[in-house]
Specification:
Elements (H helix, E strand, L loop, with lengths): L1 H14 L5 E8 L4 E3 L14 E4 L11 E5 L4 E4 L4 E3 L10 E3 L8 E7 L8 E10 L11 E6 L1
Parallel strand pairs: 1-9
Antiparallel strand pairs: 1-10, 2-7, 3-4, 3-8, 4-5, 6-7, 8-9
Length: about 150
């Protein structure tokens, strides 16, 4: 009986933990930096709206929104430097920051609006834009995943 209660408690803790993950993306000044975000598209009915914001994901919508889609096309865009170059209808809503600047460093929120209460997919990203290194090698963007 006690083991059943302990197992139930462990599962409850694991299943009700935070669903917001956080990624770190590092790039250099002058590069185009792609901040990843994807969601699962099973069929045309599962294509949904989403937004990117310049702050941690709030309880609804996006704080300081920079780009919105209705699932099919971009409907609002704060600056032409922010672009969605992926295939929206296949769930690739990764944000590309064109010609990155140090001022682009900070927290970004990718919110995919999934129908129903508290179903939205939330991913916070920490973007770090560093001054360019002097090098002849091609630049890279590094991404590491951390779950909070």
């Amino acid at each position: 009986m006690l083991s059943h209660i302990c197992l139930t408690w462990v599962l409850l803790v694991l299943l009700t933990g935070s669903t917001v993950s956080e990624l770190i993306v590092i790039g250099e000044v002058g590069q185009d930096i792609t901040v990843p975000c994807r969601y699962s598209v099973r069929d045309r009915n599962s294509i949904t709206s989403m937004c990117w914001g310049r702050a941690r994901c709030p309880s609804s919508k996006c704080s300081q929104p920079i780009i919105w889609t209705n699932g099919w096309r971009v409907t609002e865009q704060h600056s032409s430097r922010y672009q969605l170059k992926g295939d929206l209808q296949r769930g690739d809503v990764s944000l590309t920051i064109m010609d990155a600047r140090e001022a682009d460093s900070g927290t970004y929120c990718c919110r995919v609006e999934i129908p129903g209460l508290f179903n939205d997919q939330l991913i916070n990203h920490k973007v770090v834009v560093k001054k360019a290194r002097i090098s002849t090698a091609s630049p890279h963007t590094y991404t590491s995943e951390q779950t909070s």
